[in-house]
Amino acid sequence: DDLWSPSARQTRIFATIFEVLDSSFDVVVVDSASLRGMFRELLWKIADRILCVVSNDPASLFASIDRVERIRRSISSEVEITL
Question: How far, in Å, are 24, 38, 41, 57 from residue 75 at the CA level?
Fold first, then answer.
């Protein structure tokens, strides 16, 4: 988590990269499934829209709901979440 803290140089570099991508392209897709900690939350915070891919397996329903709720707590109300 120290690597992805807001004061870390790597975090500032990644944020700058995404600013450049955002200004150059209409859509930037990032698969954040394997990311953890502050970097994943940073991506959620800078996103305009978040697409959550969920399974129709009933066993995964509660895990999917939990993930969406964690995302909602980390983002502003203007960010759109699509399932």
Answer: 23, 13, 8, 27
pTM for this predicted structure? 0.69
Locate 39 and state its tokens: 């970097």
Task: Name which residue leads in pLDDT, 31 or 7.
Answer: 31
Contacts of 51 (CB under 8 A, 6+ apart): 82, 83
User: 45 is written with which tokens?
Assistant: 């915070």
- Terminal CA-CA length for the chain: 28
Angle between helices 37-46 and 61-74 (to 10 degrees): 70
Q: Are 4 and 11 in contact (CB under 8 A)?
A: yes
